[in-house]
Fold these 2 entries.
Entry 1:
Amino acid sequence: MKKVIVLLLLAVTGYYLVISFMDLGKYGPVVETGVKDFYLEKTVSELHVANTITSIIVNFRGFDTLGEVTVLFLAATALGGILYKRRHDVGERSVLFPSSSIVKSGSKLLFPAIILLGAYVFIHGHLSPGGGFQGGAIIATGFLLMLLAYDNFSVSHNVLSFIESFAGIFFVLFGLAGMMMGGTFLENFMPVGKLNDLFSGGIIPIIYILVGFKVAAELTGLIYTVLHEKEN
Amino acid sequence: MSLFEIIGGFFLVLGSIFLFLGGLGIFRMPDVYNRLQAGTKATTLGAMSVIFGVGIIQLENDWTWIVKAMVILIFIAFSNPISSHALARAMYKGKTYPFIKSKDKDMDAYKEYIDNQKMEEE
């Protein structure tokens, strides 16, 4: 009986999938007047942002980025939930062998530089290549270095989840503020400034800084969960 | 061709030679320790020379490049030796012994050194 129901459900789903794929139409020649000219022109003239990719990711398709950040958050949470049950007999140590003193003092020296580089990458996301996701990943590698070098280095999960939720809430709040001021979600409502200035592009740098904090906190929490599961 | 371009070009060529030798060493050396030596010591100098050369060439137009290049140089001077040290140490702890072209296959000079030190301490 169960199998018949499953087959019926699959048949119905397949039928509707085929119908909806039929409606898509054929792949034709490339349309000449695409959306690219709109993006290229509006990025410089209206938003005053030097990096077109950033303006597409954060402004024109900002809602999509909110979805991406949510997917990353869900993946991190799910991985934490799975590993927490499986690996809670590993103990407190994160590495098998204690690192040598060269690695310890060296990573202590390099850690601030790596954090600074990550912050630079996401603060200048609207001017140069890089952005929130890349900067956050660089910061997480700094924490990975410290976790590998020191077997008693610990990161507070409460602080991480506070930063994560703070950044997420402010992302949504900026979007709603754009809705109130301009009419659409994530509409730019702040002064755009001069092209190639650090303070330019309206809400784009602010949103990218928030994304950077969120990604850094998420990836750090992920690495910490994988390496350093506490016994309880 | 200005003086800055000539000096910077010299550093670029020097760095390229060292990077090439490092790559060749990774390809030709027999075991992991020799490959680490070729792949980190030679490429440290190669990368440093290339970045320094770029800073020198740009000195004519913009002096900020040489400052940035210096910061990168300091970073490479720290990170590259530390990472190669960590790799070699992990290899040694993982009991990967060096390639020795003699009959005494179990020769381990570093272990003898550590044992001697322990004996002296006792």
Entry 2:
Amino acid sequence: MASQDITESGRESPGVSWLYDPKIRGIIYQAVTFIAIIGLIWWIVGNTVANLQRANIASGFGFLNGRAGFDISQSPIAYSSDATYGRALLVGLLNTLNVAVIGIVTASILGFLIGIGRLSRNWLVRKICLVYVEIFRNVPPLLVIFFWYFGVLSVLPQARESISLPFSSYLNNRGFFFPVAVWGENAGLIGIALLIGLALSFLVFRWARKRQMATGQIFPVYRTAAALIVGLPLLAFVVTGFPLSFDYPQLGTFNLSGGTQIRPEFLALFLALSFYTAAFIAEIVRAGILGVSRGQTEASYALGLRPGQAMRLVVIPQALRIIIPPLSSQYLNLTKNSSLAIAIGYPDLVAVGGTILNQTGQSIEIVAIWMVIYLGLSLITSGLMNWFNAKMALVER
Amino acid sequence: MTNSDLTPDLKYVRTEMTHGISPPRGEHGLANWLRTNLFATPVDAALSVLAILVLVWLLPPMINWLFVNAVWTGADRSVCTTAAQGGIQPEGWSGACWAFVDAKFQQFLYGRYPIDERWRVKLVAVLFVLALVPLLIPKVPHKGLNALVFFFVFPIVAFFLLVGGWFGLPYVETPLWGGLLVTLVLSFVGIAVSLPLGILLALGRRSQLPVIKLFSVIFIEMVRGVPLVTVLFMASVMLPLFLPPGVTFDKLLRALIGVALFASAYMAEVVRGGLQAIPKGQYEGADSLGLNYWHKTALIVLPQALKLVIPGIVNTFIGLFKDTSLVYIIGMFDLLGIVRQNFADANWASPQTPATGLIFAGFVFWIFCFSMSRYSMFMERRLDTSHKN
């Protein structure tokens, strides 16, 4: 009875106005926010249109078909200064992807090694890894890029006095030169053999797993797979009559000719991003392994697993669950940090876009293209990592 | 009274303590430490030998370059270049050129801030330290007043002192600012703006009101999805377009807006993590006490949530501090930018200059970031009220 009184009087009593109803208040707050933000956007758009009209800049993406008129120092696809702005942006995007993918692979390998090293029983290894992590986590990435570019790579000797490294490769202030493989006739067969080897090992893997589930018998999968993946292409290589030769870089008077060149801009950016991100990945890996409780390791020893097996079969699968979400955000950070390329002149998306922006003044369109592409890359990466995460996640009832 | 008086016939009971037997040889001392820490297994031993070889290969040349062969004083590039490069050093010499850092030190700190006015920067630095240090030491009382001084009074005083144009102080335009001054101004304002803004955005993202939630999510995800470089470009190129004709913004202010908005999106995600970790019972308990939304948030939820995410907040601060170096790309000269700019100084250009300058700048950045992370670890331990060991 009493409670009914309260609920009824709560709304109807004369002293309480409808202003105190949380629902109505919520609607008022939202309406005010909405109107304020829409008003702000309206004001910005109005100003922008007026400013563009004054500056005589036509908005729209028509400029992408115009002639670019500038050169790009390195490009994975055919490009000349006669190409369009659109193609220049595509070159920039490919360069961004190039350095990001290679950087992610290197940073992961380095980061996992250092993260495991930080947990090593070996005092010296532990301390070296700690010093590495503490140095690279606490300096700006741009500084690391500058250090590699201005401090290390630019002060290398000139082409004439190149430092020669094993496998006929050379290092000088114009970059890193190494022999490039030239495939002869029928070389495609080797690639096909490799594909067949990969497919066969996948089938063997599935069959062995099924058999182990059913009977408990273990099949030497890794050795078979290695034999298939290495053996089949090797066999094809012999059968087709060794269709491989190398184009070695030749030391000339002023420059090197032949071989392949990796420019110092790419090298500096790649090394800096890998070294910088590896420090963060190392900490993530360490936290992941420490996050698996000690009881898991002890239980697997009690089951009779050897330390290596316990690590591979029990600890790492559980650690990966902790590692993957922050790892994916580090991958995104590396991709976004690759935009620092503009500071040393590596033609990535932002650097090329900046050049176009200066030439055409189409700032809104360029910034919009940047945002769409980077947001797209973020979404794709996080989508992939979420898929991988879902595969690794704990299967519960 | 000894035990023997009480139990006279128990001959086998010992009446005095024996000394403990010392541990076997090899269970203590250097040899044992080496065996357990460096040579426990064959793999360990191999790793140790490898690590020692790497250190022997790396460390002596590094120490040589940094200290032994380094040049500490000099007037121009000749002291840091070999004879072939037009200097006084012997052929094949290589070493750090600290003379360059020494000569440019004032510039690294103040940029092109007029020399006669630099006492103002020094005064601001002293005020900053005086306001910050008591705030950082937990035992000093009057934290509320201190925070008020640090976050409201100090910025106003610093603004009038640094910009000038009032009270007879000459006006110093911001393009003249540079070096560590710009780095610290950007980081301070970025931190002071991004924390409250980030908390508001995080609350907005967790809000029951769909419109507010939608705007928060759009802002956070848009900003987090793009690199800071593009945000800075946007602030420097597009902000003038957004404003009515005739209204112009200072370049430093534009960079400040870009950096602060960027950091607040990251801060929002960190704070959201803390908000999500607070058990539902805390929210319900606050509701049942009759607290309204802001009381509930400020008195019950945020104190617990922020404490949980101190490491994340400080990580965002460190990230922000490091990210201020990116303003170099839109043509401002913070510490890293001014070091980079000085490589081109014909008076000092030498093969050793860039590495020396960058190591100096890196050391300064490192000191700041490292102390922030150590302080956060200290606070984390201090505020830890949980019962885990």
